[in-house]
Specification:
This protein is of the alpha+beta class and 277 residues long. The chain has one domain: q2cbj1_9rhob like domain (Jelly Rolls), CATH 2.60.120. The protein is 21% helix and 21% strand. The chain contains 6 helices and 16 strands. The strands form 5 sheets. A 6-stranded antiparallel sheet has the order 1-10-5-12-3-2. β14 and β15 form a beta hairpin. It is globular. It starts with 14 loop residues before the first helix and ends in a 16-residue tail after the last strand.
Length: 277
């Protein structure tokens, strides 16, 4: 794997270049979107939340009790908890123009659909390669992720890997992932001839990528470094449907919006009902 530090990093000051690179590769990195002070606020709030009540937002059922991730579960939809500091931060940043303007440049006007926070402490497993729109099921277009680095994220601590160009493939039904490497069960293999590249991100950098782009991460092999990240998913405003878990959607002014619920079997057949991401 190579780093994308020089390949896909562009400035937010050139929306046309951003859109061109996104259309070509399905992924683009914009550095220093958030300030060090903002990153400190995010990190402190989420660490205080996981120390005081990790079940308020955590997906505890995903791993065994002796797994390090049971102590540091990924937090799901914190923006829906405005009563908590992590909820206020997530709700505010989901509609922050510095992020939303880039999303708009890439896919047009969009609604916020999901917020997540990953702690990924030392020794934690990674997440097998997958496609986000397998879960969101936005239609007729797809979702887009804004993946915010809260720590230095690289190969050693399980920084994100992504396959440029894979956004052109259809969303597919996953295979079974290696449980020794991934805490999630699904695996999507990159298209033949395409290679995953390893991101290298500083706190405050943001990676934007297409909902069909294949991406994932390896385990955190360090002994003393977390790989924390705050992630938002958006869907274009002209989307006709999205999976029920992601509604209500959030407009740029913070108001809540609902569209039709995605129906049908999804990529795994008629009986498939989707899953939380």
């Amino acid at each position: 794997m190579t780093t994308i530090q020089n390949e896909l990093v562009l400035s937010a000051d050139d929306p046309a270049a951003l859109r061109g690179r996104y259309d070509r590769d399905g992924v683009v990195q914009v550095n220093s979107v958030l300030s060090p002070a903002e990153i400190d606020e995010i990190r402190d709030a989420f660490m205080q939340q996981v120390a005081s009540d990790r079940e308020a937002l955590g997906a505890i059922q995903e791993v065994a009790d002796d797994d390090i991730l049971s102590r540091y579960p990924r937090f799901m939809q914190p923006h829906r908890r405005p009563d908590l500091p992590v909820g206020k931060i997530s709700r505010r940043l989901m509609t922050d123009p510095r992020i939303l303007d880039i999303v708009t440049a890439l896919v047009g006007p969009a609604y916020g659909a999901q917020s997540m926070f990953y702690f990924k402490p030392p020794s934690a497993r990674g997440q097998a390669m997958h496609q986000d729109n397998y879960f969101l099921r936005a239609h007729p277009e797809t979702c887009i992720a804004a993946w915010i680095a809260v720590d230095r994220c690289d190969a050693a601590n399980g920084g994100l890997s992504v396959v440029p160009g894979s956004h052109a493939m259809e969303v597919v039904c996953p295979e079974t992932a290696d449980a020794e490497q991934s805490f999630t069960t699904g695996l999507v293999r990159p298209p033949e001839g395409m290679t995953a590249v390893q991101t290298d991100m500083q706190p405050g950098d943001v990676l934007f990528f297409h909902g069909s782009a294949v991406h994932g991460s390896l385990p955190n092999t360090t002994t003393d470094r977390f790989r924390r990240s705050l992630i938002f998913h958006y869907v274009p405003q002209d989307s006709r449907e999205v999976s029920r878990f992601y509604m209500p959607l959030i407009a740029h002014d913070g108001t809540e919006v609902s569209i039709d619920e995605a129906t049908g079997g999804g990529p795994c057949g008629d009986g498939w009902e989707g899953a939380m991401h």
